[in-house]
């Protein structure tokens, strides 16, 4: 069995993903998202930057195709370079065969890691008076347990190959100019435990349960197949508020799916969870079961005006750039609506679009500005401070902002799988367009902000206006979806009056 660093990394995030990558049917796998391609390019860029910082003469073992056979060939080439004592190896591969006892049986495993750099040091090893330590270059900005475990995994393999005990490895995070020094002794046992668990799952072919999570599953190529299966099983993870631990607890109490959960009474559920948690799960399930909204708390007054503004931002977090401020203007008197855009074609234009946006918004000083996340408020504060907008102007804009997300999650249980704008607007009958085809998007291929990040990057690289047009369509639909939600909230409020 081959166990690569990549499989182990995925196992740490979702064990089912590793299982499917080994045993799943290729035909069930979706193509990689375009955003993943961008991440790969960023990783390459980051690795090269780190290489420059160390400023060492390096060698890079290469093969034309990276299939299993060639990966093992690359591992041998890397060992050859270590044996002759080159100063630094860039994008080498290290592999080590070992035996792991699984349920009393010996499993022969080849462990494979992909350290970005292997740097020569003056500590003797089987090569001679030198040895190597690994440098990993994950894309995160903050150190995470999973980075430490992966670095320890590579360090452990390197120890076996070289016949030494490395005391530390380096982890070079994005935007940092110095590496994080990992105390290997503290992390090797966690890495070995993870390897054992993963090998046991793979060797015993134990297919893990599904748990659909918006954050984790969003970029996974198995999403479509997992989601279809979860739907057919009436999987509990499709109910908002059910975490993996809560799902486990429900299953222990023989509440295995949505159907069984919807049958039980609130007092029965209170035997499993404390008061408020039980009540929230109960009400959420009832909302889904009856396909109706349930009022949770008093609904705050939703403002109305002849002219209302619906606002959504597209940003490029890597460049700390808010490049599109999109506003849908709805005029209830004339029954007209118009979408306005303030679009920065590069980072230098951000100030201009902000000033134009402020001038535009100031024309409608009595109009409420609806949006769907705290991000819009934070961004207005950031841009106002950065570009020295007067505090009175800023206060006036901020006082007119209404975050419909906050209103929805505080006031309602809705019959949706999650409380994203897309899920709620879909429930209300509004669907986003695929900007490339103009066709309505299905549940599976919903677009997200990450897609816009990729399109904007393509615009910067190619200068092709088409990429910006895609973003404008997507952003306009975000504004229209927010408008649909506001209409529904107003109607609901009117019924209560
Ligand atoms: S879709 Fe989600 S549950 Fe399924 S394998 Fe991917 S990350 Fe895991």
Fold and architecture overview:
48% of the residues lie in helices and 17% in strands. It has 497 residues and is an alpha/beta fold. It folds into three domains: 2-203, Lambda Exonuclease, Chain A; 234-292, DNA polymerase, domain 1 (Orthogonal Bundle), CATH 1.10.150; 307-496, Ribonuclease H-like superfamily/Ribonuclease H (Nucleotidyltransferase, domain 5), CATH 3.30.420.10. Helix 1 (5-13) packs antiparallel against helix 5 and helix 17 packs across helix 19 (466-496). The relative contact order is 0.08. The site of iron/sulfur cluster has 13 residues, from helix 2, helix 7 and helix 8.
| The CATH topology of the largest domain | Lambda Exonuclease, Chain A
Please give the CATH architecture of the largest domain.
Alpha-Beta Complex
Helix content: 40-55%
Low-confidence stretches: none
Q: Report the biggest beta sheet as strand number plus sense, adding barrel if it closes.
A: 6 strands, mixed
**What class, by secondary structure content?**
alpha/beta
* Strand order of the biggest β-sheet: 2-3-6-7-8-9
How many β strands by DSSP?
Answer: 16
| Distinct small molecules | iron/sulfur cluster
Tally the structural domains. Answer: 3
What's the rounded overall pLDDT mean? 94
Strand content: 15-25%
CATH class of the largest domain: Alpha Beta
Give the distance, in angstroms, between the N- and C-terminal Cα atoms. Answer: 66 Å
Number of helices: 19
Rg (C-alpha, Å): 27 Å
The coarse overall form would be globular
């Amino acid at each position: 069995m081959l166990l690569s660093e990549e499989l182990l990394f995925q196992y740490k995030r979702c064990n089912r993903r590793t299982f499917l990558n080994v045993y799943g049917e290729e035909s069930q796998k979706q193509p990689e998202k375009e955003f993943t391609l961008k991440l790969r390019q960023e990783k390459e860029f980051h690795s090269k930057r780190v290489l420059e910082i160390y400023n060492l003469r390096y060698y890079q073992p290469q093969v034309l195709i990276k299939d299993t056979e060639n990966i093992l060939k690359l591992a041998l080439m890397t060992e050859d370079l270590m044996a002759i004592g080159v100063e630094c190896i860039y994008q080498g591969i290290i592999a080590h065969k070992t035996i792991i006892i699984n349920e009393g049986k010996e499993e022969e495993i080849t462990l494979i890691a992909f350290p970005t750099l292997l740097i020569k040091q003056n500590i003797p090893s089987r090569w001679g008076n030198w040895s190597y330590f690994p440098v990993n270059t994950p894309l995160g900005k903050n150190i995470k347990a999973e980075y430490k475990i992966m670095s320890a995994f590579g360090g452990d393999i390197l120890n076996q190959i070289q016949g030494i005990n490395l005391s530390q490895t380096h982890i070079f995070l994005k935007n940092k100019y110095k590496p994080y020094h990992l105390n290997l002794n503290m992390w090797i046992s966690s890495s070995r435990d993870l390897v054992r668990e993963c090998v046991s799952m793979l060797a015993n072919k134990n297919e893990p349960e599904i748990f659909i999570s918006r954050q984790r599953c969003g970029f996974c190529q198995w999403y479509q197949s997992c989601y279809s299966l979860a739907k057919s099983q009436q999987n509990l993870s499709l109910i908002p508020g059910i975490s993996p631990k809560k799902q486990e607890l429900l299953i222990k109490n023989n509440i295995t799916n949505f159907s069984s959960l919807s049958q039980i009474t609130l007092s029965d559920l209170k035997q499993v969870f404390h008061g408020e948690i039980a009540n929230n799960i109960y009400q959420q399930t009832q909302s889904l079961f009856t396909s109706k909204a349930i009022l949770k708390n008093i609904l705050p007054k939703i403002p109305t005006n002849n002219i209302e503004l619906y606002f959504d931002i597209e940003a490029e977090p890597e460049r700390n750039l808010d490049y599109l401020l999109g506003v849908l203007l709805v005029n209830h008197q004339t029954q007209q609506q118009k979408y306005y855009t303030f679009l920065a074609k590069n980072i230098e234009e951000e100030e201009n679009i902000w000033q134009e946006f402020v001038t535009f918004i100031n024309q409608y000083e009595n109009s409420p500005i609806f949006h769907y996340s705290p991000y819009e408020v934070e961004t207005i504060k950031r841009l106002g401070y950065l570009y020295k907008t007067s505090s009175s102007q800023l206060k006036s804009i901020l006082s007119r902002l209404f975050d419909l997300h906050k209103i929805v999650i505080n006031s309602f249980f809705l019959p949706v799988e999650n409380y994203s704008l897309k899920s709620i607007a879909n429930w209300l009958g509004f669907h986003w367009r695929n900007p490339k085809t103009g066709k309505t998007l299905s549940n599976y291929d919903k677009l997200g902000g990450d897609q816009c990040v990729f399109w904007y990057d393509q615009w910067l690289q190619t200068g092709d206006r088409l990429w910006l047009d895609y973003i404008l369509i997507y952003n306009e639909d975000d504004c229209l979806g927010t408008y649909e939600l506001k209409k529904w909230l107003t109607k609901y409020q009117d019924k209560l009056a």
